[in-house]
Amino acid sequence: MKLIFHPEFYRVYTSDPAAEAGRMEAIMGELQDFDVITPEPATENDILLVHTNTHLEWVKNLGDVFDVAMLAAGGAVLAADISFTEPSFAAIRPPGHHASPDSSWGFCYFNNIAIAVKKLLSERRIRRAVIVDFDLHFGDGTANTFRNDRDVSYFHMSGGEINGIAEFLGKGEYDVIAVSAGFDRAKEDWGGILEMSDYRDIGRIIRENAEKTAMERGLPCLRVGIITGCLERMSEPFLRDSDSFAYIISSALHEPCSF
Ligand SMILES: [Zn+2]
């Protein structure tokens, strides 16, 4: 598995909680064993696959945020690209799932995962995609982006219903599974719902469905890319005191072609 990360993501680019000092250090501390690849910023054309020119210009005027947001989107695009040869995880910020085509909130600016999926579609590298979002908060930006798109289905987990992910993945048709991974639903975090074992189950469900779908279609491997979602409340103790973050990544991605 390749881990996409850039030291610029350590930078405190604004005053919101997603940009807090120490947050990315905690994440990277858990992921030291993975190969790290450094992304380039997204191009403006990438951004415009999802967002309006007005929104792009608005983010441009936010100062430091713009450069790091372009880099985060570039990280998502790179993760999607790498997923064609091996599983990938983008540890990026700012998050993106509250970014709609013409507006954004919730510490998000560009919708990283939507841009990555749209790019795969626009280059005709895939025909259909599913996006699984297990962050506590509904990814309104992602849902808005694909509301009228028959080629992309968005699923947001509700409550502690892990099996909903299995049901969703079991009935869909897709060439790639993209995952918006926010960990704020954890027992120790804001959501206060999911145990560590639940995250392991989520990882297992994603991996099993990727394997099953690939096998049914005679493919060597179904692509899975995981991109960090809304991280505003993810606590350092959660990352430090458990292996769940690294576990879900390896569980979902490490050996998706084990059959
Ligand atoms: Zn969230």
Kindly describe this structure:
The structure is a single chain. With 259 residues, this protein is α/β, with parallel strands linked by helices. It has one domain (2-254): Arginase, Chain A, CATH 3.40.800.20. The protein is built from 10 helices and 9 strands. The strands form 2 sheets. It has a 7-stranded parallel beta sheet, sandwiched between helices. It has a two-stranded antiparallel sheet with strand order 4-5. The longest helix has 21 residues, at 196-216. It is globular. The two termini are 17 Å apart. The structure holds zinc ion. Zinc ion binds at residues 135-137, 182, 184, 230, 232.
Summed up, the domain count is: 1
- Return residue spans where pLDDT drops below 50 for at least 5 consecutive residues: 232-244, 252-259
Distance between the termini: 17 Å
Q: What spatial order of strands do you see in the largest sheet?
A: 2-1-3-9-8-6-7
- Structural classification: alpha/beta
Q: What's the story with the biggest beta sheet?
A: 7 strands, parallel
CATH class: Alpha Beta
Q: If helices are DSSP runs of H or I spanning 4 or more residues, what is the number of helices?
A: 10
Radius of gyration: 17 Å
Q: Which of globular, elongated, flat, extended, rod-shaped describes the shape?
A: globular
Amount of helix: 25-40%
How many individual β-strands? 9
Assigned CATH architecture: 3-Layer(aba) Sandwich
What is the chain-wise order of helices and strands? EHEHHHEEEHEHEHEHEHH
Assigned CATH superfamily: Histone deacetylase domain
What percentage of amino acids are in beta strands? 5-15%
Chain-averaged pLDDT: 84
